[in-house]
C-alpha cells in the first residue's frame, strides 16, 4: 500500500512540476483549484480547507450539489470556526481518480490546506484519502460510501479519513430487507459496474442479505463503465422472469439500464442506491421505483426542514442528499476546529473522532472506530414529476 501511495505522489509531483503552479479554473491540462474569499485581515488566525468534487464530467451534478452544501455551511458560519478564519480552496476532480490525487497533492503541498472535504464518489475518494492520510491531513467525505474509503485493504484504519454518510454494506442490507419485506419479492436480477467499488460493494451486500432472507438471485450481471448498450443482456435477463431488478449505480448508467429493461418488457420493480439522487435521472423511465438515500427533503424533522428552507432561499431549489451530506461534513469539520482551537491537524483529527451526538441534517452523528457515522437510512420513491416521495426511515 505504501509503495502504491509513493507512486501516486511521485506522479503527482511530476505533474505539478510540469504545470508550474496553480492553474486558472477551466484549464484542461490538469486539476483546477480556486480560493474563495474569507474577509480575513492582518493578524487573523487562518485555516485553509479544501473542497474536492466533480464539478465537470459524468457525475457533475453530484459535485455541483456538494459545492452548494459546502458554500452554504461556510457562509452561515461567517467563514469562522471559533477563533479561526476559514479560507476555502475548491477544486474539480472531474470524477477522475488521477485528477483527484493531483488536486489533493497540490492543495496540501502548495495551497497549505489543513483539512479536506471530499471527494464525492468512492472511486476518487479512496486514492485521495491515501494522500490525505499519508500527509496527516483530516479528510471528511460527505458521500463516498465504499468500505475502503476509511480503511486499507487489510482492514486497518486510515486514521485521518472520515465520512458523513452510511456505508455500502448497510445500504445494501437496507435495500434487500425492503425488497423482501415491503415489495414482497423473492427473486431478483442484479446489475453492477465491475470496475466501480461503489456498485460492487452495494451489489455484494444486497446479494448476501437477500439470500440470507430467503431470496434468490437469478441473474448476476456485470458491465464496464463505458458500456451503454444493454439490449442483449436485458433480453437474456427478461427470459429468467425476475420479480425485481437491483441497479446500484449512478444516475446516468441507471437511466440507460431502466430504459433497456422497459424496452424488453421487464415491467418489474427496480431498486437502487444513493447514486440515483440527481436532477438528471431519467424520471420517466424510473417513476414508481425506489432507492436508498441519506435524507429526504420531505422528512418532517426540524433539522431537515430548517436546512431545506435555508438552502432553497439561497439557491432557488430543494437540496438533494449530496448537498445535505457535504453540508454536514463541512459543519462537522468546523465544529472540530472550534473544539480543537488550533491548526494542528492531529488535534483536529482527534476532535472529529471524539464528536458525540453532533446534530446534523442527516441526524445525530457519532463516529465508530473506523470513522463511519452511526445513522439511519431513508427509502425514497421516484415520481414522474421529477421529485422523490419519502417512504420510510430504516435505523441501523
TL;DR?
The protein folds into 2 domains: 227 residues, Response regulator (Rossmann fold), CATH 3.40.50.2300; 143 residues, Rossmann fold. It has 12 helices and 16 strands.
Distance between the termini: 31 Å
Number of helices: 12
Question: What is the typical, i.e. mean, pLDDT?
Answer: 90
Query: Which geometry do the CA atoms define?
Result: globular
CATH-assigned fold name of the largest domain: Rossmann fold
Derived structural class: alpha/beta
Strand content: 15-25%
> What integer value in Å does the Rg equal?
21 Å
Count of distinct structural domains:
2
| Sequence of secondary-structure elements | HEEHEEHEHEEHEHEHEHEHEHHHEEEE
Count the beta strands.
Answer: 16
CATH architect. name of the largest domain: 3-Layer(aba) Sandwich
Poorly predicted tracts of residues = 1-30, 38-42
Can you tell me the CATH class of the largest domain? Alpha Beta
Topology:
Elements: H1 2-19, E1 32-36, E2 45-53, H2 60-76, E3 80-81, E4 84-92, H3 97-111, E5 115-118, H4 122-134, E6 139-141, E7 161-163, H5 168-181, E8 187-193, H6 197-212, E9 216-223, H7 231-240, E10 245-247, H8 251-263, E11 270-272, H9 283-286, E12 290-293, H10 302-315, H11 321-340, H12 345-354, E13 358-360, E14 363-365, E15 377-383, E16 387-394
Parallel strand pairs: 2-4, 2-5, 5-6, 6-7, 8-9, 8-10, 10-11, 11-12
Antiparallel strand pairs: 1-4, 3-4, 12-15, 13-14, 15-16
Helix pairs in contact: 1-3, 2-11, 3-4, 5-6, 7-8, 11-12
Amino acid at each position: 500500500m505504501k509503495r502504491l501511495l509513493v507512486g501516486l505522489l511521485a506522479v503527482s509531483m511530476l505533474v505539478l512540476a510540469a504545470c508550474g503552479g496553480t492553474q486558472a479554473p477551466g484549464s484542461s491540462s490538469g486539476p483546477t483549484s480556486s480560493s474563495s474569499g474569507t474577509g480575513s485581515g492582518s493578524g487573523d488566525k487562518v485555516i485553509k480547507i479544501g473542497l474536492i468534487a466533480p464539478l465537470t464530467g459524468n457525475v457533475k451534478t453530484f459535485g455541483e450539489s456538494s459545492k452548494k452544501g459546502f458554500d452554504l455551511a461556510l457562509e452561515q458560519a461567517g467563514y469562522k470556526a471559533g477563533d479561526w478564519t476559514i479560507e476555502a480552496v475548491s477544486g474539480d476532480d472531474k470524477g477522475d481518480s488521477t485528477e483527484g490525487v493531483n488536486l489533493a497533492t497540490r492543495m496540501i503541498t502548495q495551497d497549505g490546506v489543513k483539512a479536506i472535504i471530499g471527494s464525492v464518489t468512492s472511486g476518487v475518494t479512496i486514492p485521495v484519502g491515501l494522500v490525505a492520510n499519508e500527509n496527516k491531513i483530516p479528510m471528511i467525505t460527505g458521500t463516498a460510501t465504499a468500505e475502503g474509503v476509511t480503511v486499507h485493504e487489510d482492514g486497518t484504519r486510515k486514521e485521518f479519513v472520515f465520512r458523513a454518510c452510511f456505508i455500502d454494506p448497510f445500504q445494501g442490507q437496507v435495500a434487500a430487507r425492503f425488497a423482501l419485506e415491503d415489495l414482497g419479492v423473492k427473486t431478483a436480477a442484479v446489475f453492477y459496474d465491475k470496475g466501480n467499488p461503489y456498485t460492487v460493494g452495494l451489489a455484494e451486500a444486497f446479494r448476501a442479505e437477500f439470500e440470507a432472507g430467503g431470496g434468490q438471485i437469478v441473474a448476476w450481471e456485470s458491465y464496464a463503465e463505458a458500456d451503454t448498450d444493454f439490449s442483449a443482456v436485458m433480453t437474456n435477463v427478461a427470459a429468467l422472469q425476475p420479480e425485481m431488478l437491483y441497479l446500484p449505480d449512478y444516475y446516468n448508467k441507471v437511466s440507460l439500464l431502466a430504459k433497456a429493461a422497459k424496452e424488453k418488457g421487464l415491467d418489474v420493480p427496480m431498486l437502487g442506491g444513493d447514486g440515483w439522487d440527481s436532477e438528471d435521472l431519467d424520471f420517466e423511465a424510473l417513476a414508481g421505483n425506489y432507492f436508498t438515500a441519506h435524507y429526504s427533503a420531505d422528512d418532517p424533522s426540524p433539522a431537515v426542514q430548517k436546512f431545506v428552507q435555508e438552502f432553497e432561499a439561497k439557491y432557488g431549489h430543494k437540496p438533494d442528499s449530496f448537498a445535505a451530506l457535504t453540508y454536514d461534513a463541512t459543519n462537522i469539520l468546523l465544529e472540530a476546529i472550534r473544539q480543537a482551537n488550533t491548526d494542528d491537524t492531529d488535534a483536529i483529527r482527534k476532535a472529529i473522532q471524539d464528536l458525540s451526538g453532533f446534530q446534523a441534517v442527516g441526524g445525530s452523528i457519532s463516529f465508530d472506530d473506523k470513522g463511519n457515522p452511526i445513522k439511519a437510512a431513508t427509502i425514497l420513491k421516484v415520481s414522474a414529476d421529477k421529485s422523490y416521495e419519502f417512504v420510510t426511515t430504516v435505523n441501523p
